[in-house]
Amino acid sequence: MTLRPAVPADLTHLRRWDRDPDVRGSLVDSDWHWDTELHKNPAWREWLIAEVDGRPIGFIQIIDPEHEETKYWGCMKPGHRAIDIWIGEPDARNRGYGAQMMEQAIERSFAEPSVHTVLIDPLESNTRAHRFYERLGFEFVVRRDFHGDHCCVYRLRRPGLPAPN
Ligand SMILES: CC(C)(COP(=O)(O)OP(=O)(O)OC[C@H]1O[C@@H](n2cnc3c(N)ncnc32)[C@H](O)[C@@H]1OP(=O)(O)O)[C@@H](O)C(=O)NCCC(=O)NCCS
User: Fold this and answer.
1) Is the pTM for the entire model greater than 0.90?
2) For position 165, what pLDDT does the model report?
């Protein structure tokens, strides 16, 4: 499994993956405006495509929530990253690729020395995803409503850091 930057030519599979019931059921905001956003490359965001043997299987977004333009996470202090992930090809799920995608995304996030915490916000109903994140070392922080969607916020602190207050 390798991650590479998303490009406009990824539009076809990103749109197809949007229609997958498991992906749809897991997303807070289902309109990602792919056709326009794939042409942009803001400093606060990385869009990555996971490929296995050259076949695109999934998507991962890493944002800096302090600078993300819609302020989805509210007013954030520096030092965070937030990740969204999905595997759009059903036959590529449950094979360990998601764990590899997250491990690489976490490594990319902590490669920036000022980043101390990685956040994720699965829907409260997506209990399989909760287990997936817990196995990766994420800890539950709080239940939170994002624009009416009931989510669970989890965090992963940089290894070796003391627990925050
Ligand atoms: C969640 C997801 C990224 C995990 O990647 P994966 O490659 O399937 O996961 P792995 O093979 O590394 O690990 C298997 C675990 O993934 C989780 N998982 C597997 N299929 C899943 C699905 N359809 N929905 C949610 N979680 C799933 C489960 O925790 C599973 O372990 P379990 O069988 O003990 O419950 C992937 O399944 C997926 O994209 N699911 C649909 C969209 C989604 O839920 N995204 C997360 C939004 S917060």
Assistant:
1) yes
2) 63
Q: Check pLDDT > 70 for residue 9.
A: yes
Quick check: 78 and 114 in contact, CB under 8 A? yes
Nearest to 60 by CA among 106, 95, 25: 106
CA of 53 to the centre of ligand 1 (A): 20
Q: What pLDDT score does 161 carry?
A: 85
Q: Output the residue whose Cα is nearest ligand 1's atom 33.
A: 94
Q: Is 95 in the pocket of ligand 1 (CB under 6 A)?
A: yes
Judge whether 60 and 98 are in contact, CB under 8 Å. Answer: no
Four-CA torsion 119, 122, 127, 131, nearest 10 degrees: -20
Q: Angle between the 127-135 and 97-110 helix axes, to the nearest 10 degrees?
A: 60
Q: Look up residue 44 and give its two tokens.
A: 């606060």
- Which pLDDT does position 45 carry in this prediction? 98
Ligand 1 centroid, distance to 93 Cα (angstroms): 6
